[in-house]
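User: When convenient, might I ask for sequence and structure tokens for a protein?

AI:
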Amino acid sequence: MTLGTLAVMTTALTQFSACKNPQCENPLLQESTLPFGAPDFSKIQPADYLPAFEVAIAEKREDIKKIVENTAPATFENTILAYEESGKLLDRVSRIFFALVSADKTPEIAETEKTVTPMLTDLENGIMFDKKLFERIRQVYDNEYATLQGEDRKLLEEIYKEFVRKGALLPEDKMERMKAINLRIADLQQQWGDLLPEATNNAVVWVDKKEDLAGLSDADVAQCAKDAESRGGKAPYAIVIVNTTQQALLASLDNRDLRRRIFEASVHRADGTGKYNTFPIVSEIAKLRAEMAELMGYPNYASYSLENTMAKTPVNVYDFLMNLIKAYVPKADAETKAIEDFARKSEGAEFQLQAYDYFYYSAKMKKELLDVSDDEVKPYFNVDSVLVNGVFYAANRAYGLTFKERTDLPTYHPDMKAFEVIDKDGTTKAVFYCDYFRRPTKRGGAWMDNFVEQSRQRQQLPIVFNVCNNAKAPEGQPSLLTWDEVTTMFHEFGHALHGMLSDCQYTRLSGANVARDFVEMPSQFNESFASIPEVFDNYARHCDTGEPMPTDLKERMLKSITFQPCYALGENLAATCVDMAWHMLASKDIPEADKAMAFETEALRKVGLLNPFIPIPPRYYTSYFNHVWASGYAAGYYSYLWTEVLAVNVADVFARRGALKPETGQDFRDKILSRGNTGDLMKMFSDFTGMEQPDASGLLSARGL
């Protein structure tokens, strides 16, 4: 899962100042008349965005000008609160637009992004480096911080620190350089956002003969035919590359050479010497980030980035990672040897297991030892049942929420659905949209974001959406999921709950606006509901008969979840270490584009994860690591493992108290989900769990290690 977009996108859809521009016929410049202030996608056209941004940016500048030119002494109300409430129209336009940039990036949207990105970066530079504005903010910080309470004090602290960390205290020459860095990084990230999806779409593997797809289910073969047709029909079948290194189809595909071709297409999608090469972008972004950190007085970007997290320092992150690696390597070595020995029974004594063989022979071992396979269980994981009878059911049992589909709310794509979220007292709590199927205009991965962030100050209900990249079955057939895709839906809905159940005064502090190494905790914890027997039995029903999964199959399937778990941990550790390696360097030491692959290899060797006997590659190699180069996780990918520790601790509390007891869910809601970033995150964790510090010992056992 990925969160966040641009810093300017911090509020929502309603209560913006009246538009005085003649372009007010533009639906983006009019307050929505739909229920809950939902965006009216039935009226919004691609041509509306650029003029809307022009008006909204001008309004934001005017709001800031009023604060700066106020001759009264700076106070919380006339400076901090005024700053928080500035640019409401821009928030509205930005949130809608950037949702489409990620989920439905048509050529028109892409072209507008090229124009809008530097406009927004120039606006942010103008605000962050406005000396008069910062001076007023600093006066409030110096004069009122000690006397303010609660969310007011936290809001002041967050705004003041944001300005300082962006460079407001820098001398003029360094400030100008920081502005230039911000503009260039924004441009490079926009280039990345255009290039990587195109590279991934281009990496499709074409297949001429149906027999080459032996091992795939009829549904998977039909999907390959559908994908081929939608991508130009260069061959009867196409295997589409997803965002991760490994590809789920490799678990079933008998043709080893085709497995190799698919794996290599995935790994090399964006590291070529021609059009699809992201390494020049990577190298330049890394250099600019390192220089940014140096301007701010830090030795590297990791040190700068981690300061405002739970981990605090690179040393703490590496201590955490190396302890995991030390425990992981011998287990991974044993797991790999077991799979290779199994494969040699059919392939011969000289067979050497490769990364593209790992899933295939692991699946065969699982079938032989546990008598279970993906093809056997997928008919019980219909996407509609998982959503309504699983994801929604668990939220109802734990938190008292109910979900009413709203077909009267238009969406940006026909595959998208909208639901009104109703609280236990009958009041509307939020609106939830879901967009689960992949398409060429959608970037890879899965994520949560907001069209509107919750705010008591603005009397705004949250309007939240989840996006995934599941295959959509041909017309008339059910869309079936793997177990990994099931847990991804639960994961992203955990983020959605963080947004929907928020009860905060200010948008800046609400919902999932928390540190990276805390934000993944509610989502990873929510995955645990997928395997709770009552929840599982409610959604795991055969797509044709509606019958629940037979008890024997269910037991074997649930046991298989932790069968040979080293791959999943290993690919995450490797990706995390690649991320950290890039961001631990000084600017002068960043490798050039042609040395990037060698640097990545050496980084993995140094931490003991480049083991020829353990063919487990990173979940993302550098050249397609979108989390790190475009989505805000730079020096932060470790947070998935870090927050998994928190999530395991929270799940233990739920299991002990009663996972589906309303009292347990309400306590979690009151102490964590509703509170956003309004207090100390470790204290929130401690208040709920009763633990002074997270206990990492449960992580490996929770993963079956």
